[in-house]
Design brief:
nine-stranded mixed beta sheet; 278 residues; 43% helix; 2-enoyl-CoA Hydratase, Chain A, domain 1
Length: 278
């Protein structure tokens, strides 16, 4: 199999889009927007008949996972779309995957983790020891629900529990629709548990066990293509621009990327609602 840029290929072309790392939030928000653009680019390529979505992600923010999921569904209305699960395609990674009509996973892929999580640090005691006092002025009793400088009240907890339960319902519905499963069957495993690829196949979350190239072969078959596939990756326009602009300053670019990754990890731990495997 050969790789190429989208404009240089000929013959049976199979597009590849990577969904890797934490999805959305903070610095990762730019990556989410890039993925959406890549999906649309392939959707508009009339000569491209099949696309493999390669997912290797623990999930991430709810909104970003849903945005990618919905765009993949639209792509599947125009092209043959197959998901290839890598080492990890859990929680939000699974949410994205189920938008693909066909899913291929390795037997040892870690997937599942159907659930929603929201965590809030409580630094009240620490603040008191440091002599820090925070005064809050708010317009409603739930406006500061999750405030790290006070204990969570039963009402706060019920409020957040309602949010995560509502979001879980959206997750269950997406999986049930994407995999053509009864919602009750999905809810039976929607307790946050992680499944191997082999277990996921038994549960109906995966169609076939295999690696990335098995997914490429399945996409080729579904699209009725013949011959050796040419793998088409979207051009990294921003990367090329930086390369031309920065010249020999590759080290500085690498440092900037590392900083963004660290910031993304920090953002993922901030209060919010996440499709994220723990």
């Amino acid at each position: 199999m050969r790789g190429e840029s989208p404009r240089l290929g000929s013959g049976p072309r199979v597009g590849v889009i990577d969904v890797k790392g934490t999805i959305g939030g903070g610095a990762d928000r730019d990556e989410t927007e890039d993925i959406l653009k890549r999906i649309r680019r392939f959707a508009e390529d009339g000569d491209l008949k099949a696309v493999v979505i390669r997912v290797d992600s623990p999930g991430g923010s709810v909104g970003a996972s849903q945005e990618i999921h919905d765009e993949v569904k639209r792509l599947a209305q125009k092209k043959v779309v197959v998901c290839s699960m890598g080492n990890l395609a859990a929680s939000g990674g699974l949410y994205v995957s189920v938008a693909c009509p066909k899913i291929v996973a390795n037997p040892g892929t870690l997937t599942g983790s159907i659930g929603v999580i929201s965590q809030f640090p409580n630094v009240k005691d620490l603040a008191e020891k440091l002599g820090v006092k925070v005064e809050t002025v708010k317009t409603g009793k739930l406006k500061d629900a999750g405030n790290p400088f006070r204990d969570m009240t039963p009402e706060d907890r019920a409020y957040w529990q309602g949010l995560v339960e509502n979001t879980l319902g959206q997750f269950v519905k997406a999986v049930a629709e994407g995999r053509k499963l009864d919602e009750a069957k999905v809810r039976a495993i929607a307790d946050g548990r992680v499944l191997t690829g082999a277990q996921a196949k038994e549960a109906g979350l995966v169609d076939q066990l295999g690696n990335f190239y098995d997914a490429v072969e399945l996409a080729k078959q579904e699209a009725k293509l013949s011959g050796e596939p040419v793998l088409v990756y979207p051009p990294d326009e921003r990367g090329r621009f930086l390369e031309q602009l920065m010249g020999g300053a590759a080290g500085a670019v690498a440092d900037a990327v590392a900083t963004r990754v660290a910031q993304g990890a920090a953002d993922a731990r901030q209060p919010g609602v996440y499709f994220l495997a723990r």
